[in-house]
Amino acid sequence: MASAPSDLGIENTNIKTADGVTLDEQQKTLVGSVLDLFAGRPSLKKLALWDDDGVFEDPITIATGRKQFEPQWYGLQAVFSEIERLHHEVVSGGNPISMDMKTRYVTKGISKEQTIESKINIFYDKDTGKITKVQDKWDGNLPDSSFKNVSIEQLFSPWWWVHYAEGWAWWTWSFTWDMSWWQAMRNLNSVSVPKMVSVPKNDEEDAKRGNQ
What stretches of 32-139 adopt beta strand conformation (E)? Predict the structure, then answer.
């Protein structure tokens, strides 16, 4: 039996959908949990909705497996002083569940503000009900065979400030990318973040951090 959103501490329960799109209760739970994660409200209970071999993917990160994807979400709390969702709308209730999202982030310390518009895809296993992959496509895109004409503003990510300084130096040096280099940077980011961001060991530690 699937857990209710209230049992998991999911805060985003008012899921907005496009005309003609309907979600079942399990899909609403998954979408609500992902909205919480992007809002900087992770918890072990919410991340238990992910398959152990799940994947988080955005233009600069491919985090595979629990040890890589969990720190990506907890990193938001350390990096941003404000996270404001400006818009979200589920546009497809299939598999993946597709959602348009617009979020404003303010970086701690320097008050750097950035608004990111994304197309979010949530893949899940229909048998287990668990998330197998979340894709965060900035402006609807992820790298394929090449990644060209990338502006510095487009390179801003919720996890940017916890990536290697060497990575940022490389990004600012060039606007034209060979896929092998870009893929290597994405893989590097997925390894570096877990070394810098700790994940609570249990629910008690999670609660002390203010997570539900």
Answer: 50-58, 61-64, 80-93, 97-107, 113-124, 131-138
Is it the case that residue 165 has pLDDT exceeding 50? no
Side chain identity, residue 210: G
* Whether the model pTM is above 0.70: yes
* Mean pLDDT score of the chain: 79
The answer to whether the CB of 155 falls within 8 A of the CB of 60 is yes
Q: What is the mean pLDDT of residues 172-194?
A: 49
Question: How far is the C-alpha of 81 from the C-alpha of 102, rounded, in Å?
Answer: 17
Burial class of residue 61 (count of CB atoms within 10 Å of its CB; 0-12, 13-18, 19+): buried
Residue 15 identity: I
> What are the structure tokens assigned to 188, written together?
């590097």
Pairing of strands 146-148, 176-178: antiparallel
- pLDDT given at position 144: 52
